[in-house]
Amino acid sequence: MLPLAFGLGACWELDQEVLDGVTADDITNSTNPNLINVLKASAYSRIVGSWGGHNSIWSIHEVSSDEMAIPQKGADWEDGGQWIRMHRHQWDAKEESFNNTWNYCFTAIGEINNLLIQYPDVEALTAELRVLRALSYLWLIDTFGNVPIVDENTTGGNPSNKSRAEVFAFIESSIKDNMDLLVKENTKTTINYYTAQAMLAKLYINAQIYTGTARWAEAEAAAEEVINSGKYSLSSNFFANFSERNGGSTENILTLPYDQNNAQGFNLPQMTLHYLSQNTYNLQEQPWNGYASLEEFYNNFEDDDVRKNSFLEGPQFSSDGTRLNDISAEAGDPDGQPLTFTPNINMLTPNAFRQAGVRVGKFEFASGAASSLNNDYPLIRLGDIILIKAEAEFRQGKTGDALTSVNMIRERAGVDPHAALTLDLIFEERGFEMFAEASRRTDMIRFGKWNQPWWEKPQSEAFRGLFPIPQQAINANPNLTQNPGY
Amino acid sequence: MTNYLPNLKSLALVFALTLGAMLAVNAQTRSISGTVLDASFGDPVPGATVLVKGTTRGTATDVDGKFTLPLQVGDQVLVVSFVGYLTQEVEIGNQSTITISLEEDIQSLEEAVVIGYGSQDKKEITSAVVGVKPEDFNRGNVTNPAQLLQGKVAGLSITRPGGNPNNGFNVRLRGLSTFGANSSPLIVLDGVIGASLDNVDPNDIQSIDVLKDGSAAAIYGARGSSGVILITTTKQGKKDGTTNVTVNSFATLDQATNLIPILSADEFVARGGTDFGSDTDWRNELIDDAMSFTTNASISGSFGNSNYMAAVNYRDNNGIVNGVGNERLNTRLNLSQGALNNRLRFNVNLSFTNVARESINDAAFRYATIYNPTAPIYENTEDAIQRFGGYFQRDLFDFYNPVALANQQKFVGEVKSNLLSYRAEFDILTNLTVTAQYSQDRRNELEGNFWSMQDYQVGLGATGSAQRITRDRSQRIFESTLRYETDLTDKLNMTLLGGAGMQFTKNQGFNARVRQYLFDLGWDNLGAGAIRVGNNTEVSSYANEDQLNSLFGRANFNWDNTFFVSASVRAETYSGFGENNQTGVFPAFSVGSDFTQIFDMGVFSQFKPRVSYGVTGNLPPSPTLALGVYGNGNRIDLDGDPLTQNDIFVGIVQNSNPNKDLKWETKKEFNVGVDFGMLNNKITGSVDYYTRNISDLLFNVPVATGAPNPFDPGRFNTASSTWINLADLRAAGFEFAASVNEIGKGMLKWTPTLNFTIYDKTTIESLSAGDLGFEELRFATPGSPGQNNNPIIYNRVGENLGDIYGPRLLGYTEDGQYILSTTSPDEYEKLGNGLPKGEFGFTNSFRWNQWSLNFFLRGAWGHDLYNSYRGFYENADPASNTWNSVITDNTPTNPLVVSTPTFNSSYVEDAAFIRLDNAELGYNVKTNSPNLSSLRVYFAAQNLFTITNYTGVDPEVRTNDSENNDAFTSALSPGIERRNTYFQTRSFTLGVTVNFK
């Protein structure tokens, strides 16, 4: 026993080795030249993350707007009523999707801050990372508004909220102070100078909402910088921007490079398609029959608008051309068993028909697709920037310039040009163009439509323009204050 | 390698010479011979010791109980003794032959109880320790050592809902002691700490001792919080020079029982169900009576200072579903050898186990219950034959042909484990012994998973998929102790123990899964799967190792067999703790006194009150939790061009934030009890009351994402959670156990044994540490479809752990809609709790001549269960056109409920039950054969009946949520019977045990 006791004395304190992972020290001590790029890409992969999945930031943008809903089919999609509450603007701070959105943004911010500490002197990298962090804040200011500002210099314990105006100033300075250090090449999946300008355009166009002070001219200028760069052009085929192989799109400015194997998280076929649609696209997994578009929104599209193909409507077929037949169609469904996506949705809850509602078809569902798509998701697209410019011009009284911009977009869509513009027409055009691109909620707020009633949604209170700070985030950080009204 | 054999030979020679000399000296003229018999049966007692009183001269009886002893002048009295019998003294007088009848002493208080690092006389025990002997074990087809004890020890809860032979038992001592993975008691097998139960066959067990309270378990320090179970295997033959061969063989028939009633095909169609035109009893198609076979053979014996025991145990257990089975071969060799006049003792215990198991997707049980009863099993269409292998399938949500599911997915595993343990003891002085033990416990598992190309659930979309997984675990322990015993005064005895130990654990494994096959080659040829990245594929490996250092000591005092004191302390350093908190110290103290030695206690032959207090710990389940390890992220193609491959790397992401303060969980337990014996120990028993406080539980806690990490200054939280120590839990309980030894006259003897526990359920006093933590933790949603979002188990500060919350059902509208008290989860009411208020076990053993009858009743009360089958499948809602409905005694039928199934109070049922757990009728055939010492034939039944109001599959307590694989939250959601529960089974066993001389 004694030798053993002496042996123990020599090694009483123990070091834990890590065999199958690395620690922060390993990263700091590494000399691998690829590491810095991989770490940067890892920070980007946080942004790719769960954007396009169910229960995500995309979900809360879409389902809370007049574009989409998730009708409850009996037990299916009841899910505690959260998607009904989301659509009716009756959500509370405990919705899981809010917490997911919060963590989605802040994990990227934490990761970026750690990298900024690790590589403080690599100028091009730190500039890019600070703008990337601003992108997370661009989502945060839009959804939760008053959020804590955490940068690499933050110390101490749990941070407290900043006002939306302070967050605005932080985003603005983060972009402006760093964008001149960014590359000017068309780098679709990373931040470049024009991405930064586009972010500024999106920030300024909403300045009145975010800060109370309009910044239309700056929005216009930033949009113009992107449009006039010559790096981007509208695709003649609108859907080339959303196809499975859309990496070559001339129009997409910043995309999330999803890949069914390497970068998963874009689950649209599962989210929107009917169970039987598995046979239409030979999908690897059975879809969940959830997200559908509202009838009124769909009917707004002119029939010859190519963008109306953003919806899947009408009879559905198997890949071999046979008509799909849903033997479990509800007895009361007037469309019977042959599977047909009908614009009319009989009710939001509790017993929507299984085949009711047109589905999101804007993104190509390639045959044999996995539950996560290969299509890159366009976060920022030239079509959007052109419409931002048009809106900024129109709001400054430059109606002629605005009309030209809007008609550029309409021409590509194969619809007649407008003779004159109104704000409502711009709002409508944004709806046609930006469907399913997580833009509608922000647009509705900016155009003053957000609190109005629509299908299965009553008039909502003014404070619903901001989502609540997630309860879980407040539990983890008691220094956070809830947004007004919640 | 040094050859020790010549040394051993010379040692043996020295022994033989010494022995011979001693015998020569003692050669005498007069002698006495006789026979020692069992007083009850009149059978000879071989191996009994016959001594001349006041001398060291004596002998042992032979196989026929006979002895011959040389006498010297002045020899007057013989002392005859044997384990399990009362010692008897006989006057020699002038007799030259003598017959001595020994009375059995089953309830001997001199019984030794195994405690940590040694054993103690039961009378000296001052903490809550219970020993269980083979005659008390459960009967029937017992496949797992834990099952031997089910219901036998107050406070030890052992459950296995459903009858799946591949499922292990959930073992909990005195309720929950951790949120995490180590909720089962620590197993110490023949002194090997943390051994796997795979290493021992139930048939080879000589005794099981349960260290129930914190004081007894504290000698195991940071591994003792969940209690300790000490298992001792049969060591050797009892008597010198003999060989004992035992063969035990039995066959078991398993049948499904207690199936939930469902609608027939006609009733289903009448309710509006989709009619596919057939009539299929899906459960009947899925299940079949199953036969299982078991054979145990052992040989044991001794010669000189050598003892041996070798055993082979073969068990082939088949499930009630084709494709479920468990075949096990265990081999054991226990050897001990004494040297230097037995001052030096060597022990070698070797155990090898091979287990081959096969299982199906448990969802088949659910689909067999709810699949459309008008659907045929097969469909003779080109499409069905080509895509589904001829099985009937339809494109409906959550709708899979159960027979196809059971046949077209396969999950097998082969576990090879071995436990090698070497031990040497040396008596430096007669009262000073040093011991060293080295053990290696190794377990290797090879798993294969397979989804046919025609499996509609997974394989069809994946075009066939297969997987191979290996897991390897090795644990090496080196421990050394020093033990000293002395009489300080003529009344005060002291025993001191000191020790040190080191434990090294390594886990490693490999996992590969591919898809897209041309033929269903499965895991035998993963290379034939074309796709190796993306969905339904995997390539991964893992490894971790850790070290635990220990120093420990214990002192026991016995004053005149009247007052007893024990104190111990263990200090441990574990590599997996945070660097700021590496060493934990775990003390314990206990006292007791036998009042019958001081006062006249009337009917009491023993009355020993005792008080104890002990601190134990619990280790984190993974040694790297404190470090915030970075794991694998996405594959990153740096230039985005898939044609250039030399710039593709896997990103790194931090999955939890580091915590340099992370440490062990702590349990402080106070126990007060009384051991008693009455009417000259005809009645024996004990009562115990305990309170325990558990603190610093390990939990992954949400933190301010992106904010500075307080546990790793200078860095930010990149994960949304950090492992910290948090929470305080308080629990208490009352335990009672009593046994009456052999009531009755003549040949009919009845021995009843009762134990019960009343729990003061675990209360959550806090779920936080500083700013971090929770006001409540909600877990376990009922599930898909539609009930995915509102958890039903609430763990609230100030309330009991695992309360079931939901809306109260106030009634139904006339057309059958629910009237619920609320739809808001914050207004949910407490509807029940899944953990029991009490548990009991009642053993009855009868003996009549050669017959024996045992039956054992077991039950639990005060626990509720969420009946998931009712919660999803009893309403006549639109979905009931697709899925069959259950119709239990609790299903409302007038009116039928038409609401969409929503969790509410009506699905939470009182699950109190009494079960005839096992019964056995045995007959000892009288034998006069010179080669046969006994022959026993027995018939046993398990799970004969259950009395309960619960209408689900099995009212057994659910300590964990079977659908929650996260070890850290599974135990926080008790009380849910999931729909995939394996059906209950009833078993009948016929067997024979033969002992050869």
Describe the SSE topology:
The complex is a heterodimer of chains A (486) and B (997).
Chain A: H1 2-10, H2 24-29, H3 35-48, H4 57-63, E1 68-69, H5 82-88, H6 96-118, H7 123-143, H8 164-178, H9 193-205, H10 207-211, H11 216-227, E2 252-256, H12 268-272, H13 278-281, E3 292-293, H14 295-299, E4 311-312, E5 314-315, E6 340-341, E7 359-360, E8 377-381, H15 382-395, H16 399-412, H17 423-434, H18 440-446, H19 471-476
Antiparallel strand pairs in A: 1-3, 2-8, 4-7, 5-6
Helix pairs in contact in A: 3-6, 3-7, 6-7, 7-8, 8-9, 9-11, 9-15, 11-15, 15-16, 15-17
Chain B: H1 5-25, E1 31-38, E2 49-52, E3 58-60, E4 66-70, E5 77-81, E6 88-91, E7 97-102, E8 112-115, E9 118-121, E10 129-132, H2 145-149, E11 156-159, E12 170-173, E13 186-189, E14 192-193, E15 205-211, H3 214-217, E16 228-233, E17 243-257, H4 265-270, H5 282-286, E18 290-303, E19 306-318, E20 325-339, E21 344-359, H6 363-370, H7 382-388, H8 402-408, E22 409-429, E23 432-451, H9 459-462, E24 465-487, E25 492-515, E26 538-559, E27 563-574, E28 583-593, E29 604-618, E30 630-637, E31 648-654, E32 665-678, E33 683-702, E34 721-740, E35 748-766, E36 768-769, E37 772-773, E38 776-779, E39 793-796, E40 803-806, E41 809-812, E42 818-820, E43 829-833, E44 838-848, E45 851-861, E46 864-867, H10 868-873, E47 908-910, E48 913-925, E49 932-942, E50 946-948, E51 976-977, E52 984-996
Helix pairs in contact in B: 6-8
